């Protein structure tokens, strides 16, 4: 059970009620999945969505780790009776990882030189140096006022460094110039006590010689004791200065103030490690010098990559005057003027040697974590964009074409269910003209008459696309060659799964089959490939493997839940990624349906196939089209069936007659059925379009002739095209010309986009207006009028035969 302080802290972070947090965490502990909680438990969790539930669970783990560290600290301090009860209480109530270590720091054993000075009795001298002068009542009142103001200032600084950096980054401009770098962080466990010790006695004595005035000498003289190793006043003063410096380095309040100052006012600068000519793509980073509050996650990733390649290193600066004032104030006010030089020297030494080096590590750790979060967010979004690539739509046979390095073609035809129906057809292209190739294609494919062709976006295939279109036109074949991603294609074709599925085919033929299936159902085919092999970006190498793996698992689970599947047709690898299920559960479902198909959702929890938690989490995403219960073919959860029936009855129709009729809930209100707005939207959508696939569908784009002169194209003309490649800086679109058109990232969307791969994927059909026709054709996807809506009869509304919008993940 989650502790109350953790619940209250999480509630503040996520701006919700502690009871909602408790409910969400209890459901997670019970084995329920985040997609189920976010979709079907709105009221219990305060409308937290799926991604928020995941973040909530992750933050709970971090606080539990903090609790374990707190327990270790408390066990150590309980053995020391000298630790004040107030200090123990502050540790028990602390919910910030850095502050917790700061609170523990004063109770740890000091470094040897400081301990030696204390053993020699120099602690009393240190106290005399910081003792306040006697004051009259008026000065005392002023001092109390100052102290009160200081306390209020300290209270204002209670925000954690994580929050300070996060808020500053959120307020920072989104431009490229606003972003700055980061360096690999050391562990947060390294604290001041682990710092390098003060410089040797010779240097210490030399450093105090110029501040040793007669009054100081008089104060230090009683502490001179050759028997204890203190031979003169300079040695006594040096020892006292070490003690004071160590005290400042361990002061939790000083450390907290400086850490927040670093986060808010620090300046991060870059120091090149190579010449400009050797910096390559990192050249723009070599002169960066930006405030910490303007650091952006995507720029931190770029700088981390540059550091990994040993192109540059980074430093964090803080105004020494501003910081020194805070440190000096911690030594006390109204001290004797004769001691001011010593105290300033102590404050400067503590700042430079004990505070800033260690606190900088904390800041770097926060920056690293923020960069990690940005990398994981991008990887998740890129994978999601790839998995949710539009489907072919109508169920039809498809011919996949793999193009080798010589330009020759390997063609395999699959039926509407993805089953191979033709042998491998090899076409040697060479110098053949379009008419010859067209005749050969007609002769080879005539028996199967595929409804579409699938071509990869690899370089050889892109070079062959124009020749293929010309051959199809010459042969009178009215079939469009769609482009699909080649990500992970070779990995799948050479995998154990491919050998099991397509063992009788050679590798080029397996690749052709996979291309055809990727056009029919991209998600189902891409799930056969390890996400690490999909080429999602260099960010994979900058983040821990465990975090990358967790992110991929969560993204896949979210996508499969978003689409759902037919439990009697979906393959095992698709079922295994559904919320609440795993390989073993998927295997049991497949084995059971091979004996006899499922006829209802209730059968899924019979015969020990699924546990109650698995059934509860997954059942809404497993559709049963042959069930006697019509609602089993929807994405509604069985617990929603009663309210669904009441809604349809209120509309004057039975479940059999009213389900699947758009507008069947017109005029009804969710509040009349005690249903919250989010659930009502889902409910009405499913009653109108039960089991509809939320993915978009492909349509045949209208491309311009290849022999069109780009110069003749007018600005702002609307063109259709197929995305052939996506990079961080933009996308390339095949509009029919020999050279692909370019869409810069600034022209991809009206809103700010950090990486084009988050919004577009290979194979998408887009509409863009011409920005510039001279040289490479450049397009803009912003403010482009929508294409006319096709006639209802051409959109494929048959749920079982009409395809992508209704069929869901078929397998």
Protein architecture, described:
With 811 residues, the protein is of the alpha+beta class. It folds into five domains: 4-78, Arc Repressor Mutant, subunit A, CATH 1.10.10; 96-381, Tex N-terminal region-like, CATH 1.10.3500; 398-521, YqgF/RNase H-like domain (Nucleotidyltransferase, domain 5, 2-Layer Sandwich); 636-689, no CATH class; 710-789, OB fold (Dihydrolipoamide Acetyltransferase, E2P), CATH 2.40.50. The protein contains 31 helices and 15 strands. β14 (765-772) and β15 form a beta hairpin. α3 (34-40) crosses α4, α10 (161-171) packs across α17 and α15 (297-308) crosses α17. The longest helix has 48 residues, at 340-387. Mean pLDDT is 86; it is low at 137-158, 167-203 and 792-808.
Write the layout of secondary structure elements.
Blueprint: H1 4-13, H2 18-29, H3 34-40, H4 50-78, H5 85-93, H6 97-104, H7 112-119, H8 123-130, H9 137-156, H10 161-171, H11 201-209, H12 214-220, H13 233-250, H14 252-265, E1 267-272, E2 289-291, H15 297-308, E3 312-317, H16 320-329, H17 340-387, E4 398-403, E5 409-414, E6 425-427, H18 434-445, E7 452-456, H19 459-474, E8 481-484, H20 489-493, H21 496-502, H22 507-520, H23 522-526, H24 545-563, E9 565-566, H25 572-575, H26 583-595, H27 612-618, E10 622-623, H28 641-650, H29 655-658, H30 677-688, E11 718-727, E12 730-734, E13 741-744, E14 765-772, E15 778-780, H31 804-807
Parallel strand pairs: 4-7, 7-8, 9-10
Antiparallel strand pairs: 1-2, 1-3, 4-5, 5-6, 11-12, 11-14, 12-13, 14-15
């Amino acid at each position: 059970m989650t502790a109350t302080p953790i619940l209250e802290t999480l509630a503040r972070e996520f701006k919700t009620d502690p009871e909602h947090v408790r409910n969400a965490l209890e459901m997670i502990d019970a084995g329920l999945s985040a997609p189920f909680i976010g979709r079907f438990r709105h009221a219990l969790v305060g409308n937290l969505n799926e991604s928020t539930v995941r973040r909530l669970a992750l933050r709970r783990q971090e606080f539990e780790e903090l609790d374990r560290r707190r327990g270790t600290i408390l066990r150590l301090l309980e053995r020391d009776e000298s630790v004040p009860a107030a200090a123990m209480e502050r540790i028990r109530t602390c919910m910030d990882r850095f502050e917790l270590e700061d609170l523990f720091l004063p109770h740890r054993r000091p470094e040897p030189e400081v301990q030696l000075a204390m053993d020699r009795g120099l602690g009393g001298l240190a106290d005399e140096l910081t003792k306040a002068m006697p004051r009259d009542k008026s000065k005392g009142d002023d001092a109390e006022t100052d102290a009160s103001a200081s306390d209020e200032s300290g209270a204002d600084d209670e925000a954690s460094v994580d929050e300070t950096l996060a808020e500053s980054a959120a307020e920072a401009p989104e431009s490229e110039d606003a972003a700055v770098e980061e360096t690999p962080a050391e562990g947060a466990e390294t604290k001041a006590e682990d710092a390098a010790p003060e410089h040797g006695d010779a240097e210490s004595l030399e450093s105090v010689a110029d501040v040793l005035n007669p009054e100081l000498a008089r104060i230090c003289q009683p502490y001179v004791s050759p028997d204890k190793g203190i031979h003169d006043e300079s040695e006594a003063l040096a020892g006292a200065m070490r003690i004071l410096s160590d005290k400042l380095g361990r002061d939790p309040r000083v450390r907290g103030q400086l850490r927040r100052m670093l986060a808010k006012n620090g300046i991060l600068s870059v120091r090149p490690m190579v010449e400009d000519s050797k910096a390559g793509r990192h050249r723009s980073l070599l002169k960066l010098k930006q405030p910490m509050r303007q650091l952006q996650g995507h720029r931190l990733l770029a700088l981390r990559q540059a550091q990994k390649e040993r192109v540059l290193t980074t430093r964090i600066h803080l105004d020494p005057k501003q910081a020194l004032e805070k440190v000096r104030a911690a030594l006390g006010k109204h001290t004797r003027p004769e001691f001011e030089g010593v105290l300033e020297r102590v404050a400067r030494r503590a700042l430079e040697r004990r505070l800033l080096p260690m606190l900088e590590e904390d800041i770097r750790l926060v920056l690293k974590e923020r960069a990690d979060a940005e990398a994981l967010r991008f990887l998740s979004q890129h994978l999601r964009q790839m998995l949710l690539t539009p489907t072919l739509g109508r169920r039809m046979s498809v011919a996949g074409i793999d193009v080798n390095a010589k330009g020759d073609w390997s063609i395999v035809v699959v039926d509407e269910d993805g089953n191979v129906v033709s042998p491998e057809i090899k076409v040697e292209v060479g110098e053949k003209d379009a008419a010859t190739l067209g005749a050969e294609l007609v002769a080879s494919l005539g028996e199967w008459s595929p409804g579409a062709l699938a071509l990869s976006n690899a370089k050889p295939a892109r070079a062959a696309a124009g020749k293929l279109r010309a051959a199809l036109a010459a042969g009178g074949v009215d079939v469009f060659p769609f482009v699909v991603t080649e990500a992970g294609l070779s990995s799948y074709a050479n995998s154990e799964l491919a050998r099991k599925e397509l063992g009788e085919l050679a590798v080029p033929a397996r690749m052709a089959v996979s291309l055809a299936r990727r056009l029919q159902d991209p998600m189902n085919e891409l799930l056969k490939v390890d996400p690490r092999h999909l080429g999602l970006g260099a960010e994979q190498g900058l983040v821990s493997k465990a975090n990358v793996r967790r992110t991929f698992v969560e993204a896949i689970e979210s996508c499969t839940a978003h689409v759902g599947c037919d439990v009697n047709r979906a393959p095992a690898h698709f079922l295994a990624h559904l919320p609440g299920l795993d390989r073993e559960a998927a295997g049991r479902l497949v084995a059971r349906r091979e004996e006899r198909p499922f006829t209802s959702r209730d059968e899924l929890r019979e015969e020990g196939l699924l546990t109650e938690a698995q059934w509860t989490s997954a059942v809404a995403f497993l559709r049963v089209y042959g069930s006697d219960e019509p609602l089993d073919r929807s994405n509604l959860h069985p617990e929603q069936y009663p309210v669904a029936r009441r809604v349809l009855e209120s509309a004057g129709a039975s479940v059999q007659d009213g389900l699947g009729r758009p507008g069947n809930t017109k005029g009804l209100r969710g509040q009349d059925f005690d249903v919250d707005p989010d659930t009502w939207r889902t409910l009405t959508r499913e009653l109108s379009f039960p089991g509809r696939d939320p993915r978009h569908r492909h349509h045949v784009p209208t491309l311009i002739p290849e022999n069109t002169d780009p110069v003749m194209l007018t600005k702002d003309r609307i063109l259709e095209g197929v995305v052939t490649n996506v990079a961080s800086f933009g996308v390339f679109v095949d509009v029919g010309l020999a050279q692909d058109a370019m869409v810069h990232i600034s022209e991809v969307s009206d809103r700010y986009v950090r990486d084009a791969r988050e919004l577009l994927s290979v194979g998408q059909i887009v509409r863009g207006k011409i920005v510039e026709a001279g040289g490479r054709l450049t397009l803009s996807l912003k403010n482009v009028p929508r294409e006319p809506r096709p006639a209802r009869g051409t959109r494929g509304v048959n749920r079982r035969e009409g395809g992508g919008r209704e069929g869901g993940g078929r397998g």
